[in-house]
Amino acid sequence: MHGDVHAQFAGVTRVYPGAGGHAPVHALGPINVDLHKGEFFAVVGPSGCGKSTFLEVLAGLQQPTVGTVTFEGRAVAGEVPDGVGVVFQEDASFPWLTVWGNAAFGLQRQGTAPAEVRRRVDDALAFMGLKDFAKAYPSQLSGGMRQRVCIARTLVLQPRLILLDEPFGALDAQTRLLMGDEVLKLWRTTGATVLLITHALDEAAMLADRVGAMSARPGRFIEIIETHWPRDRDSTIVAEPTFGEITGRLWERLRGESLKALGHSGQPPAAALAAE
Amino acid sequence: MTAMRRAIDTTIIVIAVVLIWQGLARWVGDTALPGPAPTFSYMTHFVPSARFAENAAATATAFALALLLAYGLGLAIGVWMGAQRLSGEVGEPILITLYSLPKITLYPVILLIFGLTLSGKVVFGAIHGILPVALLTMAAIRNIPLVYLKSARTLRLSPWQAIWNVLLPATIPEVLAGLRIGFTVTLLGVLLAEMFASKDGLGFLIINAMTLLQTKEMITIAVVLFSFAAVANAILLWIEHRLHRRV
Description:
A: Rossmann fold; B: globular
């Protein structure tokens, strides 16, 4: 199940330089982790722990302060590597383009032949269940549908590494479960490596092969848990006892960290209050 | 359906305006405000005259140049202040203060600098138009969601492609609103300049007609200017709505 190393973090630290009299913020690291080719890796952690920074460093949107990130053996430096697709939490669909135009956007900018653009966009829209909405504008769609548009926009570029930065954070719980199934289908069909950043323990436990539990800031992996799910899983595994065990274990590791992120010292709240 | 309703709305407004005009004309009398019928009959032979054409051309020239200046400078200032966080933060309150200032009080200064020239009219028109264009352009740029810029990078767009294909379409609806407001106030500025110190132009003709008690001519020009402003505004609004419908 462990394939070749697809992306690697070697001693990666990210410090935001202090500005306007503020002290520098140590956001992330040191991180040492390998993402294997074709695996589904999820990162969970308390809010503000640096998990989005982790993703943005891998995407080339931010530079590591120390250490190196490599993708397919090449150092990621200053720009998004070819073969990496990113979907963000915020709605990134362009309101001035139709669903079809949004999906075709990246390909058209690369100068792909129109026939090829048409073929790939039609495929991606069919895959994401957006076929009937090709001519609609994002403003006519729900939040979940717009997020599918963003996934389709990435999908047409045939990424080998798909980075998902809390893509379902703004959606309701039922829609999130269904979108989870879509992502699993996407992962299986494309054979891409997937990195999912989320704050939802159950989402991570249900979707991923491995789940990295990240500490409060500066973000480090406290533990990386293997789920041993079969490759052709879907959201019905939430009924399995193992699912409860994994979620429980994640919460056990993260409870103290979440309290820290809320400003407590990691002790029970009453003790923290008494200490102040 | 909506086009039909809009046409009906417009017709109702036009009829209402004409009725109110008729009522007012009866009330204040022909010497101050001639009614719609005598005005329209005067209009039919005044508007085709050479005198009207010459002065309308003078106003059009001044307005076109003022608009060019207002749009050019307004867009440049707006883009610069939108892109540079610091200059934006320093400049915004200054611009808002200037915007709320009655610029007519500066007219004597402009007059003393430029005299009764075309330049005076152009500058006075432009100082009205620059501010709304600059303010709304700045706001448009600042309101671009950060995730659009991140998306441009992750879709591996070149900086030029990002500007042309993401920044431009994302800002256009708001910038256009600025251009529309700028259009109206620049026209106002040019007409004010013509009314107070000029030897030609429609603004000059209005004041000239007033002093000679040629009220029909005065109101005729006003109606022509109203119609022009209303039609231009409607066209710009229509373009804006077309873009907004997608947003």
